[in-house]
Every structure is written in C-alpha cells, then in structure tokens.
Amino acid sequence: MDTTMKNDSIVMVKAYDFALRIIKAYKFLNKEQREFVLSKQMLRSGTAIGALIKEGEHAQSKADFINKMNVALKEANETEYWLMLLKDSEYIDEKCFLSIHSDCSELIRILASIVKTTKQNNKN
C-alpha cells in the first residue's frame, strides 16, 4: 500500500490493493498470455471500484454516496465475471483465480453491506 492511502477507509485500501493486483494480472495476461480483450475489460472494471469509492468520499448527498457505492458494487460484480471467464478459458489457472477472486468477493460483500446499511440509515 502506498503511504498516501494510510488515512483512507478500509474499503478504500482494499479496493486500491485490489486495483494493483488487477493491474499486475493485466500486465501478465498481455505479456505472457497475449490476451488483450478480456484482460482490458477486467482492468477497466477492476480499477473503477476504487475510483468510485474515492468519488463517494466527497459525495454531494447521501443519495449520491449510495449511487457511487452501488456503481462500485456493479463494477466489482463485473470484475468477478471477467475473472471467471479468464479462468474458464484457461488464461489464468485455478490458484491465481482463487487468490484474486477471494479479494473480489470480499469487496463485493463490503460494498453490498455499505449500500444496505447506508440505505437503512438514510430511511431513519
């Protein structure tokens, strides 16, 4: 983790670390596997998660915050899809998939919880 991230929320740190893993996977897939299409989709959605969380830190309203977290959740779900395709098409092996998929699943759970809790708190 970069030192500029030390004051960020746990979800932001996890998303940033995940984005770094996604970038490394993208580089590997391009250089070693010569795969360019699926990996580019994975790169786009996998790095968007943290960007949306960061945007949410300065949301204009609770509704804007919920929207940013919802879109981050959708990007995490999309990233999971690309990871599954890369595994099932044998561009990444099971061990690599399980490692990075675990981080992706954790982000999905955290973001879903943030959205649910914020919506509930917003009703009160």
Structural class: mainly alpha
Q: Please outline the major beta sheet.
A: none
Low-confidence runs: none
User: What is the N-to-C succession of helices and strands?
Assistant: HHHH
List how many beta strands DSSP finds: 0
Helix run count = 4
- Average pLDDT rating: 94
Helix content: over 70%
End-to-end separation in angstroms reads 36 Å
Beta fraction: under 5%
Shape: elongated
- The value of Rg in angstroms is 15 Å
What attributes does this structure have?
124 residues, mainly alpha
Could you characterize the architecture of this molecule?
There is one protein chain. With 124 residues, this protein is an all-alpha fold. Helices cover 80% and strands 0% of the residues. The chain contains 4 helices and no strands. Helix 1 (10-31) packs antiparallel against helix 4 (94-123). The longest helix is centred in the last third of the chain and has 30 residues, at 94-123. The chain is elongated and about 50 Å long.
